[in-house]
């Protein structure tokens, strides 16, 4: 049995078209990204994000700062962007150079403009089950599962990875969809014991092939978040022959990746709605 592909390119195309229409109705929207230094992977991701924003009619600006920028200068820029009424969304591209405290920089963002959903205010609301801005990759994963009507209520979901960007937020979203969730990490013994129970398996470890076909439950849905650059090109965290056992599987590339960018656009639209009073943003955000 070959699994049905959870095709992120097709769904992301539809999301982008919808966002484009809503942007036209809403008027001028503006996203500012900030990059410090020249991490090559970050530069590629940012270029894709800017191409996508322009395609849907969101104005975007790429602020590039030199590697040696001090944390104080970075905080000044963030507070300037926070105060700028013409800016709807701010995205600080991670990782920041080692001399900057990422948590301090992210905490300086106005949560309503935090389109990545990394600010503790937004992370806290997700934890409380009242999502505001939610990180784009987990949103993209949930959209792919929803698109294919994969049953989450009463399902056993296993997430490999507990990062603030993917593992933890997707585990919360699965929990809110009434799945029974297990989170695995680098101190989990006998990974296969957990994965073999998973009706829905989300793999975000950044370890190529960490999930082999024999670790996958027959008939399950497998979401491979991994993006690993190898000599053989970009590969995920799941051996592609897991498709022989799973009922649904995301390809790499072309699965979660395109969804992440589409959801960033949606988050920017959401930020603009919050800022125009079209959606209520929770009080007490500072
Ligand atoms: P991360 O911050 O490095 O987190 C990796 C997580 O995997 C950690 O929680 C780690 O456990 C766990 N882990 C590592 N080795 C493990 C092992 N052998 N067994 C079990 N768990 C293990 O990475 P991330 O930012 O979440 O990203 C994960 C992957 O997704 C990367 O390949 C990244 O490039 C990709 N990604 C893709 C997208 C997309 O749009 N498709 C977006 C974001 C990330 P500990 O906590 O114990 O260290």
Description:
The protein is of the alpha/beta class and 286 residues long. 38% of the residues lie in helices and 16% in strands. The protein has 9 helices and 11 strands. The protein has helices at residues 8-26, 40-55, 71-83, 102-107, 120-127, 136-147, 167-176, 191-195, 256-275; strands at residues 4-5, 30-36, 59-65, 89-92, 156-160, 180-184, 200-203, 221-224, 228-230, 233-235, 248-249. Helix 1 (8-26) packs parallel to helix 9. The N and C termini lie far apart (52 Å). The model has no long low-confidence stretch (mean pLDDT 97). Residues 137, 160-163, 165-167, 184-188, 191, 204-207, 210, 225-228, 256-257, 260 line the site of NADP nicotinamide-adenine-dinucleotide phosphate.
How is the secondary structure organized here?
Layout: E1 4-5, H1 8-26, E2 30-36, H2 40-55, E3 59-65, H3 71-83, E4 89-92, H4 102-107, H5 120-127, H6 136-147, E5 156-160, H7 167-176, E6 180-184, H8 191-195, E7 200-203, E8 221-224, E9 228-230, E10 233-235, E11 248-249, H9 256-275
Parallel strand pairs: 1-11, 2-3, 2-4, 5-6, 5-7, 7-8, 8-11
Antiparallel strand pairs: 9-10
Helix pairs in contact: 1-9, 2-9, 6-7, 6-9
The protein binds NADP nicotinamide-adenine-dinucleotide phosphate.
NADP nicotinamide-adenine-dinucleotide phosphate binds at residues 137, 160-163, 165-167, 184-188, 191, 204-207, 210, 225-228, 256-257, 260.
